[in-house]
Structures are given as structure tokens and as C-alpha cells.
Amino acid sequence: MNARQRLLTALDHREPDRVPLDLGSTQITGIHIVAYRKLRRALGLPTTEPELCDSIQQLALPEEDLLQRLQVDTRGLYPLNNHNWGVVEEDAGDHWRYRDEWGITHVRPKQDGLYYSIREVPIPNPTPEVIRRHPWPDMGAAWRIAGLREQADRYRAEGYAVVLKDAFAGIFEFAQRIVGMENILMLMALDERLTSALFDKLLELKLAYWQTALTALGDVVDVVTYADDYGTQRSQLISPAMFRRQIKPHIRQIFALQAQLAPRAKRFFHSDGNVRPLIPDFIEMGVDILNPVQASAVGMNLAELKQEYDQDLVFWGGGVDTQGILPTGTPAQVREDVRRNIKTLAPGGGFVFNTVHNIQADVPPENIIAMWEAWRDFGGYVA
Could you report the per-residue pLDDT of 174-209, keeping only the tens digit for each? Predict the structure, then answer.
């Protein structure tokens, strides 16, 4: 069974020879460049200067020698976007500054700066006219997917599963980056017409990207992604009713286009935190895969999720707690957490091993290796 067969079997809710492993196929299943460099040294791999697949989060694009060493089953396609294209860092004194194609200004401290944060949003005082006149980037441009067909064909020929990343964050999350988080939350509560104008524009850009990308790649990708964030550690950022009324109809249109242009590809949906009340809505929209399965959040008990949604959702993530155990636990604690989570999520298939979101800079390499060794030791299925 090759890597692609293994992943497709798991996505079909059947047991392959072992639990599939993902690292770095998306910008939400990756590894910070600081941790990546340390991991390469710990594994005895040559020193390199890895490419950043996400400059904002400072994520390394894992190189092929490391992916093969760790027996990773996935390979990701990264369209050109504001996180990996046209990134020009300006010297701004004690920090680096970067203004992206959307007009968002990001800053990263020079001293121990591990990632970029938003300093200025492009539309702090939105009106329908300002939204209409804003110089929105062309998300349907063919140059954004230049070379991805060749990559996908090569990955397929080598037996790997192919994951196609979205071109920008989900509609709710990206609206926060355009007008500011406080603004979008207030607008959703007080001015749904104005909110709808912004969401409609972002939907238009989403559909333009997926139309271009999947017209060219729909027959060679196995997974397509959508990433938004609705959960907090305890509850949700917005009410389920607000999600259903203002956001769900937009996402449904995106998934419908994905299903039309890539009917065999599975739809991967990311949201951190407690999204338990929204899971039935996700399934109704057409979500096949839930990521990152944040077990440390209220309501996200892995055993309960597996029992309730085992035949409806594939769990991609949930392999190890990344808030506490992976960065600060001992290798033995990491191993036990992985063993327990695999035992819960693996039976019957429907599970892809990955950390709960990206591996951060403070994770010691010995803990990453302990995680991998536990996956290797406990992730096999009995024939």
C-alpha cells in the first residue's frame, strides 16, 4: 500500500496498513522554521536553508529528505499568495514590516520575533463604497497556480496523496484582517447589510480562485482545504445562529464549486477551539475532514467525537496536545499522549495523524521524535 492508497483508505473510513501521517501539506499542519532546523540537526540531516511556505507564521516548507525520513504520506500544493509571494521585509527600526497585496501591514520584532502580527488593516472604516473601490487582488489569476500541475503529477507518480491549499484564510477570519476583529464582530451584530457586502466580496474572490485552481488541478488533487476559526478555548467567537445566518451560506457555495470541479477530492475544514455545536452544520455543508481536533478545548473530547461522528467525519489532527504536552512535556508524556489519542481515533479508519495545529518554535526536537516514534509504534493496524 503506497502513501496515497493509505490516505484514501483512511478517508473512506476504512483501516489501511497504518495510520496516515501528515506534516506540512498545509499552513495549519506544519512546523515553525526554528523547530524545523533543530529537528533536521537531531535527525542528522544536512544543514539547509529551507524555503518558507508561510512567511507570516514563519513555517518551513519541509524538504523531501525529511518527509521521506519521517514516512510522511502527504504532499502539499501551495498557490502563490500574500504569505509566500512578494514578501518584502522593510527595516522599521526594532521590527520588520511587510505590507501585503491586500493592503494589510504586518510587523515582526527583530528581537526574538517568531512570526508576523497585523499592525494596520486596510479598511478600518468600511462602507459599501469603500469596499467596492478597494484594490482587491486578482485571486483567479492563473499565475497563482503556476507549476502546481507538474508538482501534482510528480507526487501522484511517486505514490503520494496530494493536498491543495486555499489561497487565503476563510471568509470570517479574513474579514477580521481586512477591517479589524472588533469591527467585524460589531458589524455582524449591528449591520448585516454592510457585513454581507464584505462577505460577498470575499466569496467572489474565493470562487475565482477555486474556479481557476480546480479547472486545472481538479483531477489530480485528493484533498482541498478551507480554513476559518470559530472556536475559543471554551466556546465560540460568534453564536451558532450568527454562523448559520451570515457565514454558512457562503461556505456552502464554495464547497459546491469544489464538488463540481473536483468530485473525487475530499473537503478539509479547519477551525481551532470548541466547534462542537457547529459540527452538524459542517457536515451539512459538505465537510469530509475536520482539523485540527483540539481536544484541549471544552466540548472536544476525542472519544465522544469519535463515537458521535465516526462515519461522518475524518479526524485530521488530534494526534498530540500542542498547547502543553508537546512543547513542555517529557518525551515519555508525549509518547503516552500519542498512544492514547491513536487508540481513540484510529479504529475503523477515518483518522490522519497530525499535531493540533502547527509545531511551534519552542517544541524540542526530542519531543517531535518521541511523537513520531509513538506514531510508528502505535499507528499500525492488525491485518
Answer: 999 999 999 999 999 999 999 999 999 999 999 999
d(CA 95, CA 111): 8
Name the pTM for this structure. Answer: 0.97
Distance CA(208)–CA(252), nearest Å, equals 15
Residues 38-87: pLDDT tens digits?
Answer: 999 999 999 999 999 999 999 999 999 999 999 999 999 999 999 999 99
Expressed in angstroms, the distance from the first to the final Cα of the chain is 13
The phi-psi region of residue 192 (left if phi > 0; otherwise alpha if psi is between -120 and 50; otherwise beta) is alpha
> Three-state secondary structure along the chain?
CCHHHHHHHHHCCCCCCECCECCCCCCCCCEEHHHHHHHHHHCCCCCCCCCEEECCCCEECCCHHHHHHCCCCEEEECCCCCCCCCCCCEECCCEEEEECCCCCEEEEECCCCCCCEEEECCCCCCCHHHHHHCCCCCCCCHHHHCCHHHHHHHHHHCCCEEEECCCCCCHHHHHHHHHCHHHHHHHHHHCHHHHHHHHHHHHHHHHHHHHHHHHHHCCCCCEEEEECCCECCCCECCCHHHHHHHHHHHHHHHHHHHHHHCCCCEEEEECCCCCHHHHHHHHHHCCCEEECCCCCCCCCCHHHHHHHHCCCCEEECCCCCCCCHHHHCCHHHHHHHHHHHHHHHCCCCCEEECCCCCECCCCCHHHHHHHHHHHHHHCECCC
The average confidence (pLDDT) of the chain is 97
123-175, pLDDT tens digit by residue? Answer: 999 999 999 999 999 999 999 999 999 999 999 999 999 999 999 999 999 99
Q: Which of 175, 153, 174 is nearest to 162 (CA)?
A: 153
Give the pLDDT band of residue 226 (cuts 50, 70, 90): very high
| Alpha-carbon gap, residue 66 to 54, rounded angstroms | 18
CATH number of the structural domain 3-378: 3.20.20.210
Give yes or no for a contact between 268 and 163, defined as CB atoms under 8 angstroms apart: yes
Task: Give me the residue label for grid cell 502539499.
Answer: 76
CB 106 within 8 A of CB 98: yes
Q: What is the pLDDT of residue 382?
A: 77
